[in-house]
Amino acid sequence: MARASRLVVKLASGIEDPERVAQAFSVATTALASGIEVSFWLTGEASWFAIAGKAEEFSLPHSAPLHELLASLLLNATVTLCTQCAVRRDIKDGDQISGIRIAGAASFVEEITAEATQALVY
Predict the structure, then answer these.
(1) Which domains does the chain have, with CATH numbers?
(2) InterPro entries from the entry (predicted)?
(3) Is the dihedral of CA 101, 107, 109, 112 positive or negative?
(4) CA distance 119 to 8
(5) What's the mean pLDDT in 21-40?
(6) Is a pLDDT exceeding 90 seen at residue 19?
(7) 13 and 71 in contact (C-beta within 8 Å)?
(8) Contact predicate 86/48, CB 8 Å
(9) CB 77 within 8 A of CB 52
(10) Which of 7, 44, 65, 98 could disulfide-pair with 12, CB 3.0 to 4.6 Å?
(11) Structural element, H or E, at residue 41
(12) Does the pLDDT of residue 1 top 60, yes or no?
């Protein structure tokens, strides 16, 4: 099996499931460190991490600080906030951290169906 050159990670969980959150961020940043191109999607309750200060509020023992992992993704990956998820939470374009784009399902489907792409959902 050929190695994927691109990884798309979709996180739908928020603070209610801290281990799932930490796993998604950890896998994405590890992929980056391995030289894999990463696209990271914030959906559902994870949408709140697109707001300044929310990642700093997250804590899980024996896990890297979430705000540091998010900072790494913002520097080296594409980070996307789901359009519908943002609207449901009254997050307007411009409310999100600089560098996080807002896009919808069509963009997600385009990304996960691209050649040499692996997708993970958390």
Answers:
(1) 6-121 (3.40.1260.10)
(2) DsrEFH-like (IPR027396), Sulphur_relay_DsrE/F-like (IPR003787)
(3) negative
(4) 5
(5) 97
(6) yes
(7) no
(8) no
(9) no
(10) 44
(11) strand 37-42
(12) no
Report the C-alpha gap between 77 and 94 in whole angstroms. Answer: 19
> Percent of the chain at pLDDT above 90?
95
Predicted model pTM: 0.95
Distances (CA, A) of 112 to 6, 9, 30, 34, 120: 9, 9, 19, 19, 9
Q: Which residues fall within 8 angstroms of residue 121, CB to CB, at 6 or more apart?
A: 9, 10, 12
Rounded CA separation 94/12 (Å): 21
Work out the end-to-end distance of the chain between its first and last CA atoms, rounded to an integer number of angstroms.
Answer: 23
Return d(Cα 112, Cα 71) in angstroms, integer: 23
Q: How many residues comprise the chain? A: 122
Quote the CA–CA distance of 65 and 116 in Å, as a whole number.
30
| Spatial contact of 36 and 27, defined as CB atoms under 8 Å apart | no
For residue 90, pLDDT beyond 60: yes
